[in-house]
């Protein structure tokens, strides 16, 4: 198929509008932030000048104006948060106690359905697997890599290589990996990397994405591939930020590399490590694109976000979809609370 | 303060850009002038005076097919002055609900699932079709069709395009070379399969992977067989949950389909074993016919568009289709098919005019001439249908012996028809036994 620029023009136009809108909004905000405070500053300056010239006592800055100022900056955020987050969250919670058409109250039936229907329990187990494995594996890989390439030759290149997958969208990455897992019948030319390796080692080609639970692990690999780069970059920065004198002192004391890692590096980068794990956990709980692109939740690979979309938008089961959404929300809350408390402790400590 | 200045420059550029964008939006709004009054427009006078009105249509039809649609009603637009604004979406089924609930419903929608249509009727969003539309539809379509857009005695819109699903694709060339003949009964079909299997080729190829709709080709298989083993009356009970999904009659049909679909001697030519059916995409599933790696592929008439470029689709060509034979010919000629219905979310006169026009014989012939289109419209002149498979389909749909039934998964509630039934059949192909699968689907139907 040829790429017809003229044909695709509407899409480019849309892209152009998007970019323009971004420039306008961000530019407008920056301008506002620049102009408004300087206008106040100039006015105050003028007041001070006139006051000084007339010999009157210098005017005090009125206290309540600061509150007004704060409100001025908070208002748009508060407004958007209410419209875009608080209101839908409340509505979704209400819907989760109603039937599929959102007409009648059904109490906890949707939640009961969630934990009794075999296919949904499977979805919950899959999500749990994801959330346990992805942060752990991605962070370990990232950390290991960060420590190994630290101060090595070609460090920049080595880091870019791992970081590159971050630039690929989840959908793009899933399509790439779908090709890796692709299957062609025995005796035909394999187009999938994994099956080609298997075949050249004398094995039989396998339909990787068909058998549960192996397929879920193979999908997790995709997420790890994307996110390990993120973990690596943050942790590498944290390692670089360890004060040189501590490292030097440890060296003088004659620590082994092993001790160095566990007793100097790890405690020093603990806050960064927590940020990485928390961010990855939340991202993993919400995973949708990978499963949808690679298997569409078939062959027992579905996760909560996927099933929520299916129930609410494809099957018209608003109540069940909302219940799944609320459950997902509840799962994220403890992680967020932990993160906030952790941040507070650091600030105090 | 170079920093501040550069920020200001950025902002100014942004504002400038917005102004440019706004002017760009303003262009491209060239108003079409109607040329009502000319001779060829005389036929459109009955649609009333709606000059300058706009009607929006939302459907799942995109790209070339959408261009063909626009072409098919161009004369209507020119003559009546009604401007039809069609938008096709790949996420039609999911997005239609979002748009309707959000108060942004299109005037008309081409809904391919009677089950979805019923959902919008139940939530009070659809407007019953006007008297003119109803009269036009009743004159042009058989009651078999109209009952699918009739809910609680109210009629909601005529069918538009249709497809015939009871087809088996084959290669006339290969058949001629090997001396095989097209089977006309189920027994002949099985015998032919055995002959081909004995010659060392797997006779059937199949594939049910289709993105988020994975499983639907398998449900079509089951429905087609069900229509043959249990008959149309039981089929109707099944799709309306008059009998449970795990009824022995359903199990019988599923097992009968399994004698082909899950038979390691029969499938999956060109791809591997039975399990490869689950991961082979429906688009490429029949392609091995062109290379002789399989001989038979049961798929709807629209599969004509999936063949590799340069494949001649004709009775004497590289590939063609024959009617999936009946098991008991005495019971008539059961035909499974699908199609879309023109349902209205608004009842303004211009919307009803378009709805009536789309139900008419003039429209069916106008659209058919452009190609790649089939309809059950009785006024459709078969001479206006250019390609051979579409001719065959129209012939079957217009045959008085035909007992037509709509694709069952489109009739069931979406949670079953587009959910557990698809998923269940995928698991069934993947090795689960019939009883477990049917029990599971029955459990999900509330």
Automatic annotation (TrEMBL), chain A:
Membrane topology: Multi-pass membrane protein
Family of the protein in this entry: Belongs to the binding-protein-dependent transport system permease family.
Name of the protein described by the UniProt record: Carbohydrate ABC transporter membrane protein 1, CUT1 family
One Pfam family this sequence matches: BPD_transp_1
Subcellular location: Cell membrane
GO CC terms in record: plasma membrane
Domain ABC transmembrane type-1: 124-341
Taxon lineage: Bacteria, Bacillati, Actinomycetota, Actinomycetes, Micromonosporales
Automatic annotation (TrEMBL), chain B:
Signal listed as a keyword: yes
Cleaved signal peptide residues: 1-24
This protein's record includes keyword Transport: yes
Pfam families per record: SBP_bac_1
Entry keywords, A to Z: Signal, Transport
InterPro entries associated with the record: Bact_solute-bd_prot1, SBP
Family: Belongs to the bacterial solute-binding protein 1 family.
The protein's name: Carbohydrate ABC transporter substrate-binding protein, CUT1 family
Native organism: Micromonospora halophytica
């Amino acid at each position: 198929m040829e790429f017809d620029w003229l044909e695709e023009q509407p899409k480019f136009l849309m892209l152009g509008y998007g970019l323009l809108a971004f420039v306008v909004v961000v530019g407008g905000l920056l301008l506002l932030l620049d102009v408004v405070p300087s206008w106040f500053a100039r006015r105050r300056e003028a007041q001070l000048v006139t006051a000084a010239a007339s010999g009157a006592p210098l005017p005090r800055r009125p206290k309540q104006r600061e509150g007004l100022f704060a409100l001025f900056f908070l208002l748009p955020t508060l407004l958007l948060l209410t419209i875009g987050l608080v209101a839908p969250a409340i509505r979704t919670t209400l819907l989760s106690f109603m039937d599929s058409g959102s007409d009648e109250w059904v109490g906890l039936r949707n939640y009961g359905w969630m934990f009794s229907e075999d296919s949904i329990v499977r979805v919950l187990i899959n999500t749990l697997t994801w959330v346990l494995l992805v942060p752990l594996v991605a962070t370990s890989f990232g950390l290991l890599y960060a420590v190994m390439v630290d101060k090595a030759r070609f460090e920049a290149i080595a880091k870019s290589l791992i970081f590159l997958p971050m630039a690929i969208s989840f959908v793009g990455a899933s399509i790439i990996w779908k090709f890796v897992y692709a299957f062609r019948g025995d005796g035909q030319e394999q187009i999938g990397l994994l099956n080609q390796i298997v075949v050249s080692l004398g094995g039989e080609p396998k339909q990787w994405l068909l058998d549960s639970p192996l397929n879920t692990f193979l999908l997790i690999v995709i997420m790890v591939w994307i996110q390990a780069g993120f973990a690596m970059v943050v942790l590498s920065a944290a390692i670089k930020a360890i004060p040189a004198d501590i490292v030097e002192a440890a060296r003088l004391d004659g620590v082994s590399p092993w001790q160095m890692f566990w007793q100097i590096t790890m405690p020093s980068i603990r806050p960064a490590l927590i940020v990485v794990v928390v961010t990855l956990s939340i991202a993993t709980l919400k995973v949708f694109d990978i499963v949808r692109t690679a298997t569409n939740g078939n062959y027992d690979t579905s996760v909560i976000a996927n099933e929520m979309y299916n129930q609410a938008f494809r099957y018209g089961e608003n109540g069940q979809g909302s219940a799944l959404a609320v459950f997902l929300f509840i799962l994220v809350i403890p992680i967020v609370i932990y993160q906030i408390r952790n941040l507070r402790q650091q600030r105090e400590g | 303060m170079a920093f501040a200045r550069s920020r200001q420059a950025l902002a100014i550029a942004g504002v400038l850009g917005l102004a440019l964008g706004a002017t760009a939006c303003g262009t491209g709004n060239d108003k079409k002038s109607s040329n009502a009054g000319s001779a060829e427009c005389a036929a459109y006078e009955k649609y009333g005076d709606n000059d300058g009105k706009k009607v929006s249509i939302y459907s799942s039809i995109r790209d070339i097919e959408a261009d063909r649609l626009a072409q098919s009603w161009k004369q209507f637009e020119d003559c009546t002055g009604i401007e039809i604004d069609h938008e096709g979406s790949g996420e039609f089924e999911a997005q239609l609900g979002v748009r309707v609930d959000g108060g942004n419903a299109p005037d008309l929608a081409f809904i391919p699932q009677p089950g979805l249509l019923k959902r919008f009727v139940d939530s009070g969003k659809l407007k019953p079709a006007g008297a003119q539309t109803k009269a036009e539809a009743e004159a042009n379509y058989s009651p078999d069709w109209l009952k699918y857009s009739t809910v609680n005695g109210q009629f909601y819109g005529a069918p538009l395009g249709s497809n015939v699903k009871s087809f088996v694709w084959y290669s006339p060339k290969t058949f001629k070379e090997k001396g095989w003949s097209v089977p006309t009964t189920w027994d002949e079909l099985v015998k032919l399969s055995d002959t081909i299997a004995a010659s060392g080729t797997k006779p059937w190829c199949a594939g049910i992977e289709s993105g988020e709709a994975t499983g639907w080709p398998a449900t079509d298989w089951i429905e087609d067989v069900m229509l043959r083993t249990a008959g149309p009356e039981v089929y109707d009970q099944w799709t309306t949950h008059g009998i449970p999904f795990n009824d022995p009659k359903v199990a019988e049909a599923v097992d009968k389909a399994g004698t082909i679909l899950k038979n390691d001697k029969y499938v999956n030519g060109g791809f591997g074993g039975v399990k490869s059916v689950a991961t082979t995409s429906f688009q490429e599933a029949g392609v091995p016919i062109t290379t002789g790696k399989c001989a038979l592929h049961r798929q709807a008439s629209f599969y004509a568009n999936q063949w590799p470029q340069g494949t001649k689709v004709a009775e004497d060509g590289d590939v063609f289709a024959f009617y999936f034979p009946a098991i008991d010919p005495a019971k008539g000629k059961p035909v499974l098919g699908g199609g879309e219905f023109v349902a209205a979310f608004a009842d303004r006169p211009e919307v009803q005019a378009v709805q009536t026009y789309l139900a008419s014989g003039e429209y069916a012939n106008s659209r058919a001439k452009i190609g790649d289109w089939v309809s059950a419209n009785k006024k459709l002149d078969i001479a206006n249908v250019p390609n051979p498979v579409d001719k065959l389909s129209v012939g079957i749909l217009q045959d008085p012996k035909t007992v037509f039934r709509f694709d069952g998964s489109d009739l069931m509630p979406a949670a079953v028809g587009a959910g557990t039934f698809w998923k269940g059949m995928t698991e069934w192909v993947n090795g689960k036994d019939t009883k477990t699968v049917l029990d599971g689907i029955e459990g999900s139907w509330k």
